[in-house]
Amino acid sequence: MGEQKKITLIGAISMAVGTMVGASIFSIFGVGAEIAKQDLPETFIISAFYAFAVAYSYMKFGRKIVSNAGPIAFVLKGFGDTIVTGSLSVLMWLSYVVSISLFAKGFAGYFIPLVGIASTPFSIGATVVIVISFFTVLNFFGSKAVGKAEFYIVMIKLLILGVFIVGGLFTIKPELIKPSFDSSHVSGMLHASVIFFLSYMGFGLVTNMSENMESPQKNVPKAIIISIIIVSIIYVTVAMAAVGNLSLKQLIAAQDNALAVAAQPFLGNFGFLLISIGALFSISSALNATLYGGANTAYSFAKEGELPEFFERKEWFGTKEGLYITAGLGMLFALLFDIGGVAAITSSVFTVIYIFVMISHLRLIKEIGGSKVMVSFNLLLISLVFLLLLYFQWIDQRMVFYGTIITFTTSFVVEFVYRKVRAREFKKIHYH
Fold it and tell me: Which of 26, 37, 321, 363 is the least buried, fewest Cβ under 10 Å from its Cβ?
């Protein structure tokens, strides 16, 4: 593949930032306000701490292993070709499929009221099909088109959020954002921090496009750390502007479009419109980056012996089965299911993948590099985050808890049966 088709450092950062900001700040902001109350800005700082803990291992691996299978390539190196690695890879690819359908639904939710169409199953379904099709066509033109489009989408989105932040910080009411550290507030902060940890998960996408990046050994670690820093600054300042301008009662009542409503006190109806358009750009960039990452992952597993050979026919930039199947399944999920619960399950999936990446890092510490004490501490921290996720699912969303357990069990069974029937195994991961 020629150098002109490679994704630059700026392109990779754009995709990571686009996925992270698009995935959460517009959709679950109201939920976070309900749980963390006025401590929302501090909550984002705690979540960023979790993200840096995981990123440490990703950066060390990114310097040594270049593969679009991303974290699964890291787990394969640490655990070898086992049923654990296979189950995690099946889970990871499905998490992309579900994310794509989630973003498409979110896009429809903002777009339909904005253009004044009645919200019916048909109008939602039609919007979902059109938006996924559009980004599938865009991705068809390869990684350069994806990186370029992503850069412009993210610039527009950050400009809109910039207007919100600057306008909001000037009119902030300090008493609304004064932190409180009594036991119920600390508990709320912890609860919200494990939920908002998911808002930082887009940085992992960088490793899923490493084969298509310029100088990946240098640029993968840089893209990961820079994207987390940019996003944590955006989250904390947006939270300060929103919580500092709108009473908690109003912010919680707004739920789905909390930021658009929060812009009204200082920007009026123009602010509401601007933030709604910003949300559409956000969700678009998240959809774009996830479709690209998901399709690349599907291809990589085919190449490395992980999905049925159907995914691998010719060169990835020649034929696009991985892209088509990922997009098609994403569309199907969005049309058939209410995926709010499935999205919560996906959060648990990502956290488990992180845990296995860190265990692999511990096993390969001499080869990969890094501090054993640091990795051990990070592993303990993210294991606690996972247990808290399960605990809050058990308390608040019992069906989601059962769904999480069923998802892990099913992926294990599917992988077990597939191995027995097909005697399939991973090929060796290549170092670039």
Answer: 363
Alpha-carbon gap, residue 408 to 406, rounded angstroms: 6
Q: Is 309 exposed, middle or buried (0-12, 13-18, 19+ CB in 10 A)?
A: exposed
pLDDT single digits (tens) 161-210: 888 888 888 888 877 777 777 777 788 888 888 878 878 888 888 887 78
Tokens representing 75 are 């787990």
* Exposure letters 42-56 (e unless 16+ CB within 10 A, then b): bbbebbbebbbbbbb
Name the DSSP class of 431.
P
Q: So what's the pLDDT on residue 382?
A: 96
d(CA 215, CA 95) in angstroms, rounded, equals: 28
pLDDT at 59 over 90: yes
Fold of 3-422: Amino acid/polyamine transporter I (1.20.1740)
> How many Å separate Cα 326 from the centre of its chain?
16
- What confidence score (pLDDT) does residue 384 get? 95
pTM score above 0.90 = no
State how far the Cα of 258 lies from the Cα of 388, in Å rounded to an integer: 26
Q: Kindly list the domain boundaries of the chain, sorted by start residue.
A: 3-422
> Residue 129 in contact with residue 331, Cβ under 8 Å?
yes
Per-residue tokens: 352: 């488990």
Nearest to 197 by CA among 13, 411, 355, 322: 355
- The vertex-18 CA angle with 13 and 22, nearest 5°, equals 155
Least confident of 35-44, 72-81, 104-113: 104-113
CA 323 to chain CA mean position, Å: 18
Q: What residues does 213 pair with on adjacent strands?
A: 7
Average pLDDT over residues 312-336: 68
Contact call for residues 85 and 69 (beta carbons, < 8 A): no
Dihedral angle sign, alpha carbons of residues 353, 359, 364, 366: positive
Under 8 Å between Cβ of 134 and 158: no
CB-count burial class (<10 Å; 0-12, 13-18, 19+) for 39? buried
